[in-house]
């Protein structure tokens, strides 16, 4: 019989992953940044009385301080309000693009990884093609055909964002498929679909979540770049990217830097938080590190 | 452990511990050994007993988390003054002068022990050029001659090929060639045939014995397979949880096993020929956690002859001309570890 | 041990295509298993031994239908006593046939799903195969864990909390949860420590006695196979070269490869005078194996006929249970250096 | 060896054809009259409707999609991309003098980021778990979190306007020597390459650490080689291969990013011309530029792939 009577506890993987995360200070910092920024943006109406889009010609280009803690832009709109309301849109686009891409990537990746055959060959070529095309160019092609809108942007992100998750899930399926516990399921006569989605897929969730954080960060940056060059979200609805649109002229860069500094830092801070949290998650979920 | 001239390497009270997060793992916990020149020492034990760490400590090939706490390893080389390897800088000039030149080592997994992007010839020649100043062509010639000596077919062609074009057995021969090319005095083989099939293993063991007869180098053979030790070794050291439980000649250990662990090990291994007539006697329980070893004898919890005294310090007893046993039950002259 | 035949393999072949280049053109075939026929009696342990690449694992996976053979029949005695080819059953029968044959795998750390509890690893197969009540399934899991000397509370734990030896015992227990008659064990102890191996081997023998199980025991270590098996089949490059009772195989081997294999196994004993038979070179590639007898390129007794005509697996002289695939089996053992082991 | 190169190049052709077909289909879906894209404004201005229709018929604009695609692609292969609707100049010439500038920028960014990325990556791998390792991973995370254009704007504010080390805008000036051009390109190249530098630093470090645990590195040490020789000959050479795969993957982002950076720095490359073309619905020009940029991205990734083949004998020989 086993030597000492070990304490019988219903231990779970989730608990030991959580404990590793807590011990990683950078991941906690990242999580804190994410939560704070999302809260601020969600509670924007409480944080600032100003309307982010209504021009106020009496208060054009005021430096930070007093009534406008972050100052105002050329049309007299309060920068803090625009950053907060803009944050909602940017985070929404980044997250929904990443989640959409993840779902698509997981489904296609699992099917190709498990069943292989022509399905796999087709999607590998498609994935290769999508990754050869610089994402911005793909967006430009679609923007010239469809008109610009937040909805189209999310669709485009999903259409290009699935590739990373697809490759990763497919790779994990290729290796897990040969593991003995999968062969044992087949020897018990379990069906292919239940093996693929109830036995193999749960083992991929760790890296999928990590990829989700990386994709979210990536898309937020991508949306900002597109909106900055005026091809992302139309300037009617403020986002972190198109607020900075004003920074195209040299004069605005030099004379009133606060106009673009605030949104720029907001993007950098949020994405930094996401990356810190994503790295912490990867280490916590990595089975090799005891 | 007499101090006579035919000892090539004498290890005294070696302690190599690992600091992993707040825990200290006493992988090698007071090992003393004499390696006779020109002979083969079999270092045998189950995984985690410290046999491989002992070997790596000799060549100072330890990971950063390792700490050599105590002990000395005197290398009585023919070519230079006796030196305590533990006193040298691990990657200092003098230690590197010994590593691969006077003492070389081959490893368990031939498939991953050769650099995939260099040709076989270049990897062997690299050792020669590191230790001797000779021309590359001359070194390549010696490498070719060594490959032939290891009966690698069409060696002229294969010397220019890459590792992925070789089978497991062939790669292990290349490793042996690499180890012997600077004609070392000591070859340490860490489980050299564990990853190979039994007929290929027979070829490699036969080859190593033949080369030892021709070149006269000493071998430390590390394995968990008692059969290989009985077949190839002259002296045998049985290790368990970082200590040597029994040391002696092959006849001492196999014909007169005196430590309960050695006897239990021999009874728990199926032997070809008795075809299952008598049931194996497994050792009960499992190996303890290396970071909190019990006081005294670490085999006590699994030993059928355990007595209360097994909790205190265990004597290292000479039960008959050099046949040493670390056990309270052993009768004979007690030997100090340090001596 | 009843002599009723439980499983009969007939002319099993398994060829794997070798693909190369961009369009995955097939440039050759690996003849992993090449025309193997054998039977397994109820209650016995049939050993399958051979070196890597000899096809023993592929054959094991064909028996549990993880691989579909290129050709051949897998006749199994179902409950009603009749023989049926498991490869030509309809969907329903084929599913139920999975209850009869189960498998234990080599690597204990990868034979249990790391993200599921031990209980769910037992529960799902039982539920799928008609054991309705959850309480009953949990009780059977508890009994099986106790049967392999583990505490039943361990069913709530995850695989990463166990040692290799414990995990292998759990896998054995799980293989028995839907009451199979035949268990194929693929190198069940090779990944374990020496002292743990003996515990698992004895456990398997005890379970066989108690539950009247039949084993197909696959391993490369001849001493372990001999310890477990009643009859042993020696395989080389996809074919069976010799099949005999384990005692017979050791003392009256008739195939040169079996002789080389026996002589290569190191014995943990001193004084056993043993002449060492060392084969030359590597095992030939299974993509284009040698003509005629596949071992003739490495056999020191090979003659002209060996290179032309492939020797069939045939009964040796009058022994009912001793088969050999060598043209000169009757004469070779008269040679004076044939005997390698003084008992 | 040659067989491997040829095989890779052949594999590229179906890809180019497919991209061109995709681009042509997109072109077909855009509004606007294709006629204006095929004839210089002078030749079609002032024609009546019937003459325009006749011209359209004669130019085969009513043929099926595939036929028109083949004719368009035939023209492209000969360098004839048709005419820019907005400026009327032949697209071929626009591309001819603006594309090299973008390639030059992307190349500069690539060289800078590869050098810095490898340097920091190797350093933090060798000095594993020390302050250098910590700082460079911090630099790595920050580098991939900053939007490229934000870095560009900051660079302009600090280095161009405040410190006046570099010109804030523009690509070159009259009579500019090589060194003067270098001054123009440094800031844009650095901003464009920063994300790749950061990613490369992290990736090189992990790839080096991974190789350092391999058995053949232990074998190298067992031969008595010095740490430096072990690194240089055994670790670095094997770590390079996964790194070149990463560069290959990240290259499209570099080319995509140049479109934004050219806007920030007013750097007159094909990227900024692309943006003005989009804003003025000059579809023929837009899609031709997009087609060429993706070809450049494809060519460069195949090039990097070939370098990987060069480094790894297993790739060459199987």
Structure explained in plain terms:
Chain A has 13 helices and no strands. With 290 residues, chain A is mainly α. In chain A, helix 4 (79-115) packs parallel to helix 13 (258-285). The longest helix of chain A is centred in the middle third of the chain and has 37 residues, at 79-115. With 339 residues, chain B is an alpha/beta fold. Helix content of chain B is 28%, strand content 24%. Chain B has ten helices and 13 strands. Chain B has helices at residues 51-58, 93-98, 120-131, 136-149, 155-158, 168-180, 198-215, 226-232, 250-255, 260-267; strands spanning 7-20, 23-36, 40-44, 66-75, 83-84, 103-106, 186-190, 218-223, 235-240, 243-249, 316-318, 324-326, 333-334. Chain B is globular and about 65 Å long. By secondary structure, chain C is α/β, with parallel strands linked by helices. In chain C, the strands form two sheets. Chain C has an eight-stranded mixed sheet with strand order 6-7-8-3-9-10-12-11, sandwiched between helices. In chain C, strands 2-1-4-5 form a four-stranded antiparallel sheet, with helices on one face. With 318 residues, chain D is mainly α. Chain D folds into two domains: 34-80, no CATH class; 97-317, MetI-like fold. Chain D has helices at residues 2-29, 34-38, 41-44, 49-58, 65-77, 91-126, 131-145, 148-162, 178-212, 215-222, 227-265, 270-279, 283-311, 313-317. Classes of the chains: A mainly alpha (290), B alpha/beta (339), C alpha/beta (343), D mainly alpha (318). Chains in contact: A-C, A-D, B-C, B-D.
Task: Give the SSE map.
The complex is a heterotetramer of chains A (290), B (339), C (343) and D (318).
Chain A: H1 13-22, H2 25-42, H3 44-47, H4 79-115, H5 117-132, H6 135-145, H7 150-176, H8 180-187, H9 192-200, H10 205-228, H11 240-243, H12 250-255, H13 258-285
Chain B: E1 7-20, E2 23-36, E3 40-44, H1 51-58, E4 66-75, E5 83-84, H2 93-98, E6 103-106, H3 120-131, H4 136-149, H5 155-158, H6 168-180, E7 186-190, H7 198-215, E8 218-223, H8 226-232, E9 235-240, E10 243-249, H9 250-255, H10 260-267, E11 316-318, E12 324-326, E13 333-334
Parallel strand pairs in B: 3-8, 3-9, 6-7, 7-8
Antiparallel strand pairs in B: 1-2, 1-4, 4-5, 9-10, 10-12, 11-12, 11-13
Helix pairs in contact in B: 3-4, 3-6, 6-7
Chain D: H1 2-29, H2 34-38, H3 41-44, H4 49-58, H5 65-77, H6 91-126, H7 131-145, H8 148-162, H9 178-212, H10 215-222, H11 227-265, H12 270-279, H13 283-311, H14 313-317
């Amino acid at each position: 019989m086993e030597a000492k009577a070990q304490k019988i506890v219903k231990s779970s993987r989730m608990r030991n992953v959580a404990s590793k995360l807590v011990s990683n200070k950078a991941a906690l910092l990242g999580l804190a940044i994410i939560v704070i920024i999302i809260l601020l943006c969600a509670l924007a109406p409480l944080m600032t009385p100003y309307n982010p889009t209504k021009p106020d010609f009496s208060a054009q280009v005021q430096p930070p301080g007093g009534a406008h803690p972050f100052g105002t832009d050329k049309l007299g709109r309060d920068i803090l309000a625009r950053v907060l309301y803009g944050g909602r849109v940017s985070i929404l686009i980044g997250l929904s693009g990443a989640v959409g891409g993840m779902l698509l990537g997981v489904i296609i990746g699992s099917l190709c990884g498990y069943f292989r055959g022509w399905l796999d060959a087709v999607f590998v070529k498609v994935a290769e093609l999508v990754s050869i095309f610089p994402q911005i160019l793909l967006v430009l092609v679609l923007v010239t055909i469809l008109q610009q809108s937040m909805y189209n942007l999310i669709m485009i992100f999903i259409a290009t964002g699935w590739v990373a998750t697809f490759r990763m899930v497919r790779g994990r399926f290729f290796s897990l498929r040969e593991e003995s516990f999968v062969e044992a399921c087949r020897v018990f006569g379990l069906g292919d679909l239940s093996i693929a989605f109830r036995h193999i897929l749960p083992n991929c969730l760790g890296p999928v979540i990590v990829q989700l954080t990386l994709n979210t960060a990536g898309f937020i940056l991508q949306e900002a770049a597109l909106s900055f060059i005026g091809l992302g979200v139309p300037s009617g609805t403020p986002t972190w990217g198109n607020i900075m649109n004003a920074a195209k002229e040299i004069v605005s860069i030099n004379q009133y830097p606060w106009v673009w500094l605030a949104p720029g830092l907001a993007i950098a801070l949020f994405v930094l938080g996401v990356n810190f949290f994503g790295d912490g998650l990867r280490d916590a979920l990595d089975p090799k590190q005891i | 452990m007499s101090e006579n001239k035919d000892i090539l390497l004498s290890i005294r009270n070696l302690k190599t511990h690992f600091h992993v997060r707040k825990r200290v793992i006493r992988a090698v916990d007071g090992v003393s050994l004499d390696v006779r020149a020109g002979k083969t020492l079999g270092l045998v034990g189950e995984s985690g007993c410290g046999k491989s760490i002992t070997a790596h400590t000799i060549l100072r090939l330890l990971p950063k988390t390792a700490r050599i706490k105590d002990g000395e390893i005197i290398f009585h080389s023919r070519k230079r003054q006796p030196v305590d390897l533990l006193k040298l800088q691990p990657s200092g000039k003098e230690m590197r002068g010994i590593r691969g030149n006077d003492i070389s080592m081959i490893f368990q997994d031939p498939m991953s022990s050769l650099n995939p992007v260099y040709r076989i010839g270049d990897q062997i020649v690299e050792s020669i050029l590191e230790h001797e100043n000779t021309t590359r062509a001359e070194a390549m010639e010696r490498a070719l001659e060594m490959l032939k000596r290891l009966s690698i077919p069409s060696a002229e062609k294969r010397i220019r090929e890459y590792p992925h074009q070789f089978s497991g057995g062939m790669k292990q021969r290349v490793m042996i060639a690499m180890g012997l090319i600077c004609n070392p005095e000591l070859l340490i083989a860490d489980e050299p045939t564990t990853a190979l099939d039994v007929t290929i293993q027979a070829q490699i063991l036969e080859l190593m014995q033949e080369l030892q007869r021709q070149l006269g180098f000493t071998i430390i053979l590390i394995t968990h397979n008692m059969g290989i030790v009985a077949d190839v070794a002259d002296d045998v050291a049985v290790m368990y949880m970082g200590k040597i439980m029994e040391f002696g000649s092959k006849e001492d250990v196999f014909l007169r096993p005196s430590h309960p662990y050695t006897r239990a090990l021999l009874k728990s291994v199926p032997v070809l020929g008795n075809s299952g007539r008598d049931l194996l006697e497994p050792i009960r329980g499992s190996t303890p956690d290396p970071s909190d070893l019990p006081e005294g004898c670490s085999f006590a919890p699994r030993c059928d002859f355990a007595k209360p005294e097994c909790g205190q310090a265990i004597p290292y007893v000479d039960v008959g001309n050099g046949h040493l046993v670390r056990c309270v039950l052993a009768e004979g002259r007690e030997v100090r570890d340090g001596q | 041990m009843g002599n009723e035949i439980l499983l009969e393999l007939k002319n099993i072949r398994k060829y794997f295509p070798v693909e190369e280049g961009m369009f995955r053109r097939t440039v050759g075939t690996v003849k992993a298993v090449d025309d193997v026929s054998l039977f397994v009696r109820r209650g016995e342990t049939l050993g399958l031994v051979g070196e890597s690449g000899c096809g023993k694992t592929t054959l094991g996976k064909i028996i549990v239908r993880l691989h579909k053979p290129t050709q051949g029949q897998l006749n199994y005695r179902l409950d009603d006593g009749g023989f049926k080819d498991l490869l030509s059953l309809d969907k329903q029968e084929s599913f139920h046939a999975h209850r009869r044959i189960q498998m234990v795998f080599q690597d204990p750390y990868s034979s249990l799903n790391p993200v599921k509890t031990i209980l769910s690893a037992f529960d799902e197969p039982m539920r799928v195969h008609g054991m309705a009540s959850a309480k009953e399934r949990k009780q059977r899991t508890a009994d099986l864990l106790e049967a392999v000397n583990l505490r039943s509370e361990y069913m709530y734990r995850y695989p990463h909390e166990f040692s290799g030896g414990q995990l292998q015992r759990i896998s054995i227990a799980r293989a028995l949860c839907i009451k199979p008659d035949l268990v194929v064990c693929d190198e069940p102890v090779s990944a374990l420590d020496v002292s743990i191996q003996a515990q698992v081997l004895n456990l398997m023998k005890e379970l066989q006695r108690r539950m009247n199980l039949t084993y197909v025991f696959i391993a490369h270590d001849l001493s372990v196979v001999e310890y477990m098996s009643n009859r042993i089949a020696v395989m080389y490059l996809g074919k069976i070269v010799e099949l005999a009772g384990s005692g017979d195989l050791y003392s009256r081997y008739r195939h040169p490869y079996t002789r080389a294999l026996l002589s290569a196994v190191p014995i943990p004993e001193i004084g056993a005078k043993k002449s060492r038979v060392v084969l030359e070179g590597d095992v030939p590639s299974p993509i284009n194996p040698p003509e005629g007898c596949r071992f003739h390129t490495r056999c020191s007794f090979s003659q002209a006929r060996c290179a032309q005509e492939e020797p069939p697996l045939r009964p040796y002289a009058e022994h009912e249970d001793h088969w050999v695939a060598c043209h000169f089996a009757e004469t070779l053992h008269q040679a004076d250096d044939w005997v390698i082991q003084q008992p | 060896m040659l067989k491997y190169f040829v095989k890779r190049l052949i594999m590229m052709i179906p890809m180019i054809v497919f991209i061109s077909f995709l681009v042509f289909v997109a072109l077909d879906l855009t509004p606007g009259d294709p006629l204006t894209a095929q004839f210089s404004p002078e030749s079609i201005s002032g024609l009546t409707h019937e003459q325009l229709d006749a011209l359209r018929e004669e130019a085969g604009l009513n043929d099926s999609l595939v036929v028109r695609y083949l004719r368009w692609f035939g023209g492209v292969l000969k360098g004839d991309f048709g005419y820019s609707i907005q400026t009327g100049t032949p697209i071929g010439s626009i591309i001819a003098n603006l594309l090299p500038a973008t390639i030059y920028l992307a190349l500069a960014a690539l060289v800078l980021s590869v050098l810095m990325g490898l340097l920091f990556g190797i350093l933090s791998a060798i000095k594993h778990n020390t302050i250098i390792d910590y700082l460079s991973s911090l630099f790595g995370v920050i580098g991939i979190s900053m939007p490229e254009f934000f870095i560009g704007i900051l660079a302009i504010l600090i280095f161009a306007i405040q410190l006046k080390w570099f010109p804030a805008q523009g690509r070159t000036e009259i009579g500019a020597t090589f060194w003067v051009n270098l001054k123009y390109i440094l800031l844009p190249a650095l901003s464009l390459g920063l994300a790749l530098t950061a990613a490369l630093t992290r990736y090189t470090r992990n790839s080096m650490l991974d190789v350092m645990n391999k058995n053949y590195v232990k074998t190298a040490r067992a031969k008595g080689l010095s740490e430096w020789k072990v690194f240089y000959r055994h670790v670095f050479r094997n770590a390079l291969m996964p790194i070149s795969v990463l560069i290959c993957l990240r290259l499209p982002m570099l080319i995509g990013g140049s479109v934004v950076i050219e806007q920030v720095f007013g750097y007159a490359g094909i990227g900024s011309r692309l943006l003005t073309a989009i804003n003025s619905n000059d579809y023929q020009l837009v899609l031709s530029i997009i087609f060429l940029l993706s070809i450049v991205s494809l060519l460069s990734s195949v090039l990097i792939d070939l370098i990987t083949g060069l480094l790894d004998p297993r790739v060459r020989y199987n």
